[in-house]
Specification:
Shape: globular
Number of helices: 14
Number of domains: 2
Oligomer: single chain
Strand order of the largest sheet: 2-10-9-8-5-3-4
Structural class: alpha/beta
CATH superfamily of the largest domain: Type I PLP-dependent aspartate aminotransferase-like (Major domain)
Number of strands: 14
Largest sheet: 7 strands, mixed
Radius of gyration: 21 Å
Strand content: 15-25%
Order of helices and strands: HEHHEHEHEHEEEHEEEHHHHEHEEEHH
CATH architecture of the largest domain: 3-Layer(aba) Sandwich
Distance between the termini: 43 Å
CATH class of the largest domain: Alpha Beta
Bound molecules: pyridoxal-5'-phosphate
């Protein structure tokens, strides 16, 4: 039986607009989109009030009871704020240990190279988690290391890295931790009372479910104070942005006004859903329905359940020669779902995001669409090649 594309599209909030099963930009609510239908003067008091509220609401999510942290928004995509954090918080005589298990960790290494900041790397391949014990060992072996940076959810595989044990190892060694929590912040707790770190970064278009246009840094004030003069860049200088915002309530250069207005609406919805906890619960249900349904079709996940984040899931491509990812992608799109290609070197794969304006019923539809698309391709069984499973088994024993 062929799927009726129209039936899926009716399920979409924008009737006809496909769901983005991608880790940002993602599907936003009508209310978020509507919030952009008005122009704001960046200098005006109303807009400055929005900026102030945005900062305090983001800070509230880390539950900083002692008021030791501050929030600094920065124009641009997420990578801009990662670069701004590294350029500003790492002094020229710092040495950073980068924990890499995917594309976003690799990007951090590239940025440090561009910035000329001394660094060493623990490479874990495509999807193995860096463990506290090996971080501790690396820090013992090289006393010159001052900072460690880790990606919270490595979006290229969907792995949730063990931040708590890494933090423990970092501070036991007297070092400082920075976190790229881009795709996790807002859905996975990072309370300062539970996990010690100096700074995290995230952006508007991930788990808060806004539209793209800015990122934000949440950092210990003492680190912000100490960052004066570190940045090589004017536009990415966190210290300067922070000082100006505190003094004038304004962004230094043109802010993405409509994006900020949309973000205020996204924050309201986040609060109404029960904050970080409620958001995380919906994404977890999304993931569980998706994974169970896809496994029933014969698909296999790259990760063991223990490491699988509720943000995005990597599935191996089926071994059947009739399965061609580009065709599968198009068939899924025809049914109202935009999926995401994989980023693995070990085996062909694709990814399906669990974040954005959708619930478990939509995820049920995603599984139906995958089933119908396989049928249309003439793929009776979605089982991956033995090679992929052997690779996964081989590496699993190392964790
Ligand atoms: C999305 C993302 C980024 C930033 O990517 P941009 O394309 O610059 O927005 C950085 N790190 C992680 C883990 C991400 O998921």
């Amino acid at each position: 039986m062929l799927a009726n594309a129209h039936e899926y599209q009716l399920a979409s909030p924008q009737s006809g607009e496909p769901y983005l099963l991608t880790p940002g930009p993602l599907t936003t609510s009508i209310a978020v989109k509507n919030a952009m239908l008005r122009d704001w003067g960046s200098w005006d008091e109303d807009f400055r009030a929005m900026t102030a509220k945005l900062r305090s609401e983001l800070l509230a999510m880390i539950d900083d009871g002692r008021n030791e942290f501050d929030c600094v928004p920065m124009q641009g995509s997420g990578t801009f704020v990662v670069e701004a954090m590294l350029a500003s918080l790492l002094a020229s005589d710092s040495k950073t240990l980068v924990l890499v298990n995917g594309a976003y960790g690799e990007r951090i290494v590239k940025i440090l190279r561009c910035l000329g900041r001394d660094h060493v790397v623990i490479h874990k391949g495509d999807y193995l988690p860096p463990r506290g014990e090996e971080v501790a060992r690396a820090l013992r072996d090289d006393r010159a290391i001052s900072h460690v940076i880790v990606v919270h959810c490595e979006t290229s595989s969907g792995i949730l890295n063990p931040i708590a044990e890494i933090s423990q190892a970092v501070y036991t060694a007297g070092c400082k931790l920075l976190i790229d929590s881009m795709s996790a912040f807002g859905a996975i707790e990072l309370k300062t009372s539970e996990i010690r770190y100096e700074a995290l970064v995230s952006s508007a278009n991930k788990c808060i479910e806004g539209v793209p246009g800015f990122g934000f840094l949440i950092a210990r004030k003492s680190e912000l104070e100490a960052s004066k003069g570190n940045s090589h860049s004017l536009s990415l200088d966190i210290y300067d942005q922070w000082q100006t915002m505190n003094k004038t309530g304004q962004w230094r250069f043109t802010p993405p006004t409509h994006v900020v207005a949309a973000f205020m609406e996204a924050l309201r919805a986040h609060r109404d859903e029960g904050g970080v906890e409620g958001r995380g619960e919906r994404y977890t249900r999304n993931r569980d329905v998706l994974v169970a349904g896809m496994r029933e079709l014969g698909f296999e996940t790259l990760l063991q359940d223990r490491w699988q984040s509720p943000i995005i899931v990597t599935f191996f491509c089926p071994s059947e020669s009739n399965f061609v990812f580009e065709q599968f992608y198009q068939l899924m799109k025809d049914k109202g779902f935009i999926i995401y290609p994989g980023k693995l070197t070990v085996a062909d794969s694709f990814r399906i995001g669990c974040i954005g304006q959708m619930d478990e019923h939509v995820m049920g539809k995603v599984v139906e669409a995958a089933r119908d698309s396989l049928h249309e391709l003439g793929v009776p069984d979605a089982a991956p090649p033995d090679k992929a499973l052997q690779e996964r088994a081989k590496l699993a024993v190392q964790i």
